[in-house]
Amino acid sequence: MRVLVVEDEKKTASFVRKALQAEGFAVDVCHNGDDALAAARTTPFDGIVLDIMLPGRDGLSVLRQLRERKSMIPVLLLSARGEVNERVEGLNAGADDYLPKPFELAELVARVRALTRRSGENKSTVLRVADLTLDTVTHRAQRGGAEIELTAREYRLLEFLMRSPGRLCGRMMILEKVWDYDFDPGTNLVDVYIRRLREKIDTNFQPKLLHTVRGAGYLLKEQP
Ligand code: CA
User: Fold this and answer.
1) Helix 84-92 crosses helix 59-68 at what angle (to 10 degrees)?
2) Cα(148) to centroid of ligand 1, in Å?
3) Alpha-carbon distance 40 to 4, whole Å?
4) Does 175 score more than 50 pLDDT?
5) What's the 219 CA to ligand 1 centre distance in angstroms?
6) Per-residue model confidence (pLDDT) at position 123
7) Distance 48 CA to ligand 1 centre (A)
8) How many angstroms does the Cα of residue 109 sit away from the middle of ligand 1?
9) What are the residues facing 199 on neighbouring strands?
């Protein structure tokens, strides 16, 4: 997987490059928008980490240019300003994801992994987090080569969590996406299912993948 990092702050660019390289990505770095457009024209990247605040041509302009060229390359936008307007503008311009600064490197790496995985989804139907795999066609789940039996609802819950590894998922978000509820039924439904899922995918395995963030929700990831 080859990723382009576009960021004029050399220190940040260097941290991001090193973090992604440590995860096995090949990383190219550009410090301005025009170089980024030129690089994207000649190299088939699997994803771009694109800072909005750049000297000269800004990140949103780079993004619009790419989409104008019909490039479908997945783009993760970074911004120092966490303003809703900018996020909406970025997503309207065709960004795939958005991360406000300051961010945790682990969070960025997880987002990039999800982003590049999405770009490879047509090739592969298997979601993977550490040694846990989920086939979205056959609905087969395996961990460490062992088969894991899931009910239909457990499958939906696990698929939802595995599609965005490292993302914090609140109970309400899970109710919406997995149960299609747009209201809180006021039960511990989600907690019960999380517990069942945890027994199946984590109890007999290391490292633990399904984590609880007290008062906030759940996330699935391999702890560094
Ligand atoms: Ca910048």
Assistant:
1) 20
2) 45
3) 8
4) yes
5) 29
6) 47
7) 14
8) 18
9) none
Alpha carbon of 74 to ligand 1 centroid (Å): 19
Return the structure tokens found at 70.
């019909």
Residue predicted with more confidence, 16 or 118: 16
What separation in Å is there between the alpha carbon of 33 and the centre of ligand 1? 10
Give all domains of the chain, ordered by start, each with its CATH number. Answer: 2-121 (3.40.50.2300), 126-220 (1.10.10.10)
pTM of full prediction above 0.85: no
Given a cut of 70, is residue 67 above it in pLDDT?
Answer: yes
